[in-house]
């Protein structure tokens, strides 16, 4: 009788946030389709196991000890991550020990979100191979490496110097020191310390990045030369694995609404899964969008109920449609959508480029600013909104600039050009396709 070979197991450890969980699960699906077993280890909130029906064949394990969501609200991003890493290591080791005891369990590798560096220490303790997964851009990875070498006090003094601000980071044109994401992520000294922890505690033998070489070739070469471990740019993962997986319920009524709109007439607005605008800003945005005279589809996570009544009425009377959560990839791929007003999270950026949709950028912090800089100055498929406050006049001008002006048409053309390049990169023989192939070969040697 033929003996069936047991599948080798990959343990995945995502950060419990939509923008990190989604690409990790897409990676899981890609590796599952290549013959690996998948175990997802999760903390106590944003659990994917609640929608495990979308991941047939996956095993889900919850850490005994991890932080609750309230700690994220209380501490903010950086402090939360530092504490999460301190508190989860022992539980994770228990979890790996249990998995190894299971009959037939043969762990080929632990793949962890690079910010969950406690996994590297645990993998080392069990003598298991580990790989980091970067769910943000390669350029953001570079910027973290650069920041891990900086001293917060000196950096603050240096940034007073306009010449230093404009200086390009070692051979990394167009990345200047002033573009390094440092704001909005917590106090600078804690941010730099976190970057150092991420860099120093790394024991992984390779890095997987959800990016495409045609978008970030200079940053990828920098990483290859400076990090000293193999890099696998296998993205955008959402183009290779379907269906996408959302932690929140998607309101599909917007697809019916889109069907009634003219081709490329709609501007889609979403600021991701974490950030919210204040009531005043939302009202300004609503006025500006209405005055832009283009139909718009707007994701407001608290729903239209959160708008002042007169604003909500105006929006529905003047061509707007609001949902709490949209099937974003499908929306961006709909022929009626002609522009994306985005906070420039990396997933949203990749999803927009993959559908050839030009962007209006409203980044809030750190890496989003870096992505916005690339969208505006490197790929030239969008622009940043003027001013630091949301102002109805600026919103109206931005919508018209993207959707009606010749300049917007140029951005659209370049976005469509990039879309074709991305399509080619995930097809047989393309760079991301080949990188995934190489990754699978590498995992099979483990
Ligand atoms: N997203 C979605 N529906 C929405 C808004 C967002 O499915 O209404 C998804 C979007 O497709 C993307 C993710 O949420 O995959 C947001 O990730 P991103 O990195 O852009 O931003 P973050 O939420 O991490 O700030």
Verbal overview:
This protein is of the alpha/beta class and 446 residues long. The protein has two domains: 9-244 and 425-444, Glycogen Phosphorylase B (Rossmann fold), CATH 3.40.50; 253-423, Glycogen Phosphorylase B (Rossmann fold, 3-Layer(aba) Sandwich), CATH 3.40.50.2000. The protein has 18 helices and 13 strands. It has helices at residues 18-32, 69-75, 77-101, 118-125, 138-148, 152-158, 162-166, 188-200, 217-227, 253-259, 279-291, 309-317, 328-332, 346-354, 366-378, 392-403, 406-426, 431-444, and strands at residues 9-13, 37-42, 59-62, 107-113, 130-134, 206-209, 231-233, 266-270, 296-299, 320-323, 337-342, 359-361, 382-384. The strands form two sheets. It has a seven-stranded parallel sheet, with helices on both faces. It has a six-stranded parallel sheet with strand order 10-9-8-11-12-13, sandwiched between helices. Strand 9, helix 12 and strand 10 form a beta-alpha-beta unit. Helix 2 (69-75) packs antiparallel against helix 3 (77-101). The mean pLDDT is 89.
């Amino acid at each position: 009788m033929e003996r069936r070979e047991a599948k080798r197991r990959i343990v995945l450890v995502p950060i419990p946030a939509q923008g990190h969980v989604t690409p990790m699960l897409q990676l899981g699906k890609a590796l599952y389709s290549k013959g690996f077993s998948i175990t997802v280890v999760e903390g106590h909130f944003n659990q994917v196991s609640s929608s495990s029906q979308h991941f047939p064949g996956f095993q889900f394990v919850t850490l005994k000890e991890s932080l609750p969501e309230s700690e994220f609200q209380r501490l903010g991003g950086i402090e939360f991550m530092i504490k999460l890493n301190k508190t989860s290591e022992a539980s994770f080791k228990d979890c790996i020990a249990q998995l190894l005891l299971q009959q037939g369990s043969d762990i080929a590798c632990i793949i962890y979100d690079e910010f969950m560096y406690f996994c590297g220490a645990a993998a080392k303790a069990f003598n298991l191979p580990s790989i980091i997964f970067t769910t943000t851009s390669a350029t953001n990875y570079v910027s973290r490496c650069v920041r891990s070498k900086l001293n917060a006090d000196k950096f603050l003094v240096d940034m007073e110097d306009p010449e230093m601000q404009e200086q390009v980071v070692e051979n990394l044109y167009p990345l200047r020191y002033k573009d390094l994401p440092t704001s909005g992520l917590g106090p600078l000294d804690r941010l730099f310390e976190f970057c150092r922890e991420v860099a120093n505690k790394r024991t992984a033998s390779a890095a997987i990045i959800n990016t495409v070489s045609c978008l970030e070739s200079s940053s990828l070469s920098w990483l290859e030369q400076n990090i000293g471990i193999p890099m696998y740019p296998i993205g955008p993962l959402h183009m290779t694995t379907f269906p996408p997986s959302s932690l929140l319920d998607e309101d599909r009524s917007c697809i019916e609404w889109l069907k009634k709109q003219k081709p490329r007439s709609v501007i889609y607005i979403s600021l991701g899964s974490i950030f919210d605008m204040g009531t005043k800003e939302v009202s300004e945005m609503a006025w500006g969008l209405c005055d832009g005279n283009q139909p718009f589809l707007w994701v407001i996570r608290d729903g239209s109920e959160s708008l002042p009544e007169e604003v909500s009425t105006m929006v529905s009377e003047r061509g707007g449609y609001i949902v709490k959560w949209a099937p974003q990839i499908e929306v961006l791929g709909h022929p009626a959508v002609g522009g994306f007003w985005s906070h420039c999270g990396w997933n949203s950026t990749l999803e927009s480029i993959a559908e050839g949709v030009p962007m209006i950028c409203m980044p809030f912090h750190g890496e989003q600013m870096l992505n916005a800089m690339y969208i505006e100055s490197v790929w030239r498929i969008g622009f940043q909104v003027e001013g630091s406050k949301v102002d109805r006049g600026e919103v109206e001008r931005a919508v018209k600039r993207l959707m009606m002006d010749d300049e917007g048409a140029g951005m659209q053309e370049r976005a469509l050009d990039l879309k074709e390049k991305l399509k080619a990169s995930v097809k047989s023989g393309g760079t991301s396709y080949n990188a995934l192939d190489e990754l699978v070969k590498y995992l099979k040697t483990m």
